[in-house]
Amino acid sequence: MAEEESQPPTQKGPGWLESGPNPIPNVRLWRTLLRTAHLIAFGAFYGGHVHGIPVERLAPALAATVGTGTALMVLEAVRAPIWLVQVRGVATLLKIGLVVLAQARPVLAVPLLTLTIAIGAVSSHMPGRWRYHSLLHGRVVGPREKG
Questions:
Q1: Across-strand partners of 140?
Q2: In a domain, 146, yes or no
Q3: Domain that includes residue 96, residue range
Q4: Is pLDDT larger for residue 60 or for residue 27?
Q5: CA distance 98 to 145
Q6: Who's near 87: CB < 8 A, 6+ residues apart?
Q7: Could you tell me which of 133, 101, 135 has the C-alpha nearest to residue 115?
Q8: Do the domain assignments include residue 122?
Q9: How many Å apart are CA 131 and CA 133, to the nearest integer?
Q10: Are 143 and 84 in contact (CB under 8 A)?
């Protein structure tokens, strides 16, 4: 009888927050493609604001940013609904709010979008014990992925 590797138990959240087997084939590829497109679109949107391009000319970059960002959010929430209350998901929701505020207050767009970039960089590279921390549960909850 072969000995199986022991894995620490995953702490799961209540009901709808629990995730089952990965429902999305090739998820890593999709995440990489979407994230790349999202960074390019947001870079164009941010750069346009930095260089004073009229807001109406930035509409395609904004649409691409929103579209790719929405696709990334849906992908993450379908894969692991707990994402919505983990620091990584809440950071994303905060970034969305900042982009909306930047659209509503174009005079503040550059500092708000700069803050959006900073939140993204920090939340993407913080230790897993913080990134996977559930604000609802007050502890690390749900699956922690590698890579």
A1: 133
A2: no
A3: 27-140
A4: 60
A5: 27
A6: 123, 126, 130, 131, 132, 133, 135
A7: 101
A8: yes
A9: 6
A10: no
Q: Let me know if residue 21 belongs to a domain.
A: no
What domain count does the chain have? Answer: 1
The sign one gets for the Cα dihedral 103, 107, 112, 117 is positive
Token reading at 126: 């913080």
Task: Please report where in the chains the tokens 């502890």 appear, as a residue.
Answer: 139
Q: Is there a domain that residue 1 lies in?
A: no
**In 3-state terms, what secondary structure has residue 26?**
coil
Per the CB < 8 A criterion, the answer to whether 12 and 132 are in contact is no
Residues, the chain, total? 147
Is residue 31 within 8 Å of residue 72, measured between CB atoms? yes
The mean pLDDT value for 119-130 works out to 94
Strand blocks (E) in 56-105: none
pLDDT digits 0-9 by tens, 32-75: 999 999 999 999 999 999 999 999 999 999 999 999 999 999 99
The C-alpha atoms of residue 48 and residue 68 are separated, in whole angstroms, by: 18
**Confidence (pLDDT) at 24:** 77
Question: Which of the four pLDDT bands, split at 50, 70 and 90, describes residue 22?
Answer: low
Q: The pTM is what?
A: 0.79
85-140-128 Cα angle (round to 5): 95
**DSSP letter (8 states) at residue 21:** S
